[in-house]
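@here heads up, posting the sequence + SMILES for the magnesium ion run so it's all in one place. Ping me if the SMILES looks off, I pulled it from an old spreadsheet.
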Amino acid sequence: MGDDILDALLAAIPLPSLAIDSTERIIAANTEALTLIGQQAKGRNYVTILRQPALLDAIEATLTDRTPRTTRYLSNDGAQDTTLRVSCRPVRDVGQDGAGAVLLSFEDVSHVEQAGQMRRDFVANVSHELRTPLTALMGFIETLRGPARDDAAASTRFLNIMQDEAERMNRLVGDLMSLNRVEGDERVRPTQSVVLNDVLESTLRTLRPLASEAGVTFDIQMPDTPVHMIGDSDQLKQVFTNLTENAIKYGGTGGRITVKMTTSPREAALRAPGARVQVIDYGPGIDPVHLPRLTERFYRADDHRSRALGGTGLGLAIVKHIINRHRGRLRVESELGEGATFTVILPVQENV
Ligand SMILES: Nc1ncnc2c1ncn2[C@@H]1O[C@H](COP(=O)(O)OP(=O)(O)OP(=O)(O)O)[C@@H](O)[C@H]1O
Ligand SMILES: [Mg+2]
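bot reply: prediction finished. Complex structure tokens:
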């Protein structure tokens, strides 16, 4: 088989692929491979081109013993580092004097690695979050059985703390389940017909006691006409609940929260008719350095304060997923000392 036939065969493979013969030269490569390892690679010695010891060893070994093997190659696609799985296969009767060659194909497995890393991070985070209240509970149980056994006042105090900690664990598990659910159906389009004004009003009605307890009043601005959309009303309610709860919890010192809905027949962010719901507080705000990561699971801008307030750091992750499912957008603007504005942009039905 000639090298040009080899080239033609490689051209048909969608993965970066190349062949190296017994003279250690790259005798054929498809365009995907040249993009990966450099346009000048053909005809050159593979050692000067591929350079990574693990891969060089694998090629050398396969050239010698003619046994297939796989290895890894690290690259960079311009934006980020990538990991490629390289399969080395011996091919007989090609190359110089028909002495055989090694065929390499590169498969980008970065997403698999990333998913694995994310799963590990997630498990580590969950374990850590559960362990903190659990450690406290175990400590108090021990104290109640030992030193504080006959101290009624201390027992009452400890039981109160234990209840708080147990409630925190319960909230965390509840949030995790809710996150799991919304992640699960993120690709399923919602089908209910929803009036956004009603969802917002019912959310704020539910949260009014929490607000007045914190000394916060709602300033509500909404269109008089009903705003219709296709959505999941429970999930949308959860979005507005999480945002308003945050505004009360973290921005309540401002004394007032503005909840404002506006609509536009041509919402620029969606290139379609849309509604903007803004939850605005006048509290301490968020340092802008935190904004890009705010919707990550377990991310807290002010870790200490958020924990003290019983936050699990999952609220905005849930919000983000629900908004994605509704093909909407979330925008956050804040400056330290200037309060915070969370804007939810949702596609709505036109002319209704
Ligand atoms: N309105 C706000 N003002 C200031 N900081 C905020 C505001 N909203 C959110 N944050 C910050 O963003 C972090 C993430 O919020 P998120 O709702 O995801 O988690 P949480 O409130 O800590 O926990 P959860 O909502 O799960 O109980 C919070 O911990 C807080 O530091
Ligand atoms: Mg929250």
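MO: The pocket of adenosine-5'-triphosphate (ligand 1) is lined by residues 175, 242, 246-247, 250-251, 281, 283, 286, 294, 299-302, 306, 311-316, 340 (CB under 6 Å).
MO: One more: DSSP finds ten helices and twelve strands in the chain.
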